[in-house]
Amino acid sequence: MVTIKDIARQANVSPTTVSRVLNNDQSFNVSDKTRNKVFEVARQLGYKTIVERYSKKNYRLALVYKSVILNNHLENDFHFSIRTGIDKVCREHEMEIINVFKFSNVSVTNIHGAIIQGNYTDEEIEGITAALETDNILIIGRCPDDNKYDSVWFDTKKAIHSALSYLTGLGHRDIGYIGSIESPDLELEDRREQIFLRYMSGCPGFQERRVYLGNFGTKSGYQMMERAFQDGPLPSAFFIANDPNAIGALEFLKEKNISVPETLSIVSFNDHPMTRYTTPSLSTVRIPAEYMGQTAVQTIIEKIEGGRNMCKKVLVPTQLIIRDSSSAPATAPARP
């Protein structure tokens, strides 16, 4: 059987490059020449991806989610994009999706596997998995037990550190935080505001009172920036933990004629399509959501076909996208 290493050897590129090209990793920057070369060598050698090898076998996958996450495209584009990735792979390879968003003592039967999408408490996940008549379960998001379920997510700490390293590298020291309150089941060390606090605690000039927590969405982002404004002089920069909050915060600053980034820089999180069209366009950490959905389907098919006993945890790469909402502070402090 042809392997990724075989393609890499003949195409004179790394196995990682081959893997990310063949899996359509949207966050991977590679020239068209290299991309085309990889595809051509793969075709010549007769290579088939996991999904291509195991396609058209009439798999039925249950997709479990809270219906509310797909009610508002503006505020939930992240989940819409994940669903797009799932639908794309399933449609191309004739796999059936069973949508499940309500459990009331009903078992979901005749399925080969299940994908759980969204934020659930440990108790909710326990109830959901009890109703799913399959052992092939994958969670897109926080996984309560890596030895029990497959999962696809991203390295939250690394993603946030990339944004904060960028801001401190520009010369910002007084940096604030705006974000939504996260699940109580999420370990403290994995919560975005805690990652922010641990990083900033070693930065001279940081003030812990600069942390503002509220609800998810543009309205709450507006309100949190309003609170920051009322608390006194604004910091020179804000890290905002999701794009809807950032879009709302920008709206408040615009109303108050506070210039971004001349007076205040902003770096956000997720890379919602709207972030490139805001005024100014938002610097943000890109999470490849559609790719996560595609990877989820590929991973669960691998489990179904191979009978894999060991669970798999897939962390997709993230990328800092620098746009117009961030720059060096007007008066950059001296480096320590």
- Report the order of strands and helices: HHHHEHEEHEEHEHEHEHEEHEE
DSSP strand content: 15-25%
Instruction: Please give the alpha-carbon distance between the first and last residues.
Output: 56 Å
Total strand segments: 12
- Judged by helices, strands and strand pairing, the structural class is alpha/beta
Q: Mean pLDDT, as a whole number? A: 88
Computed over alpha carbons, the radius of gyration is 22 Å
Major sheet strand order: 2-1-3-4-5-11
Q: Assign an overall shape.
A: globular
Low-confidence stretches: none
Total DSSP helices: 11
**Percent of residues in helices:** 25-40%
Largest sheet: 6 strands, parallel
Q: What's the topology here?
A:
Blueprint: H1 4-11, H2 15-22, H3 32-45, H4 50-53, E1 60-64, H5 77-92, E2 96-100, E3 113-117, H6 122-131, E4 137-140, E5 150-154, H7 156-170, E6 175-180, H8 192-200, E7 211-214, H9 218-230, E8 237-240, H10 243-255, E9 265-270, E10 283-286, H11 289-306, E11 313-316, E12 319-321
Parallel strand pairs: 1-2, 1-3, 3-4, 4-5, 5-11, 6-7, 6-8, 8-9, 9-10
Antiparallel strand pairs: 10-12
Helix pairs in contact: 1-2, 1-3, 5-11, 7-8, 9-10
Short description:
The chain is an alpha/beta fold and 336 residues long. It has eleven helices and twelve strands. The strands form two sheets. Strands 2-1-3-4-5-11 form a six-stranded parallel β-sheet, with helices on one face.
